[in-house]
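In this supplementary section we document a worked example of the pipeline. Step one takes a protein sequence of length 128 as its only input; no multiple sequence alignment statistics are reported here. Step two produces a three-dimensional model, which step three serialises into structure tokens for compact storage. The input and output of this example are shown verbatim.
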Amino acid sequence: MKPLTQRLAAFGLVGGIGFLVDAGMLALLLAVTPLGPFSARLAAIAVALATTWQLNRHLTFAPSARGLAAEGTRYGGVGLATAAINYAIYCAVLWLAPGLSPLIALVIASAAAMALSFAGYSKLVFDR
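The serialised model returned by step three reads:
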């Protein structure tokens, strides 16, 4: 396994890419579909989660010894738990500041959930 500083740097890079995927999908869905900021964000989270799983397994942690299906299930579980926290913060921000851009709410929510994601993936998915 890579040293902690390398994993944190890689996780930050992958998180940044995941954020861009999330924000890009959110912006695209808001622009070209009738979806509102709450339902569009759910779809964007799903795409970002699939993207970050593949990047994290190769760049941050290395594939686990569990096999692809077990690893994917664990990653999905941790990802959904942290995404639920991320989404709850996103919703709360938009409800408390209804005129705020959904992309600003996304930044706030993503930053808040990042540490939980790293801990969960490190301990429950890619532990060695």
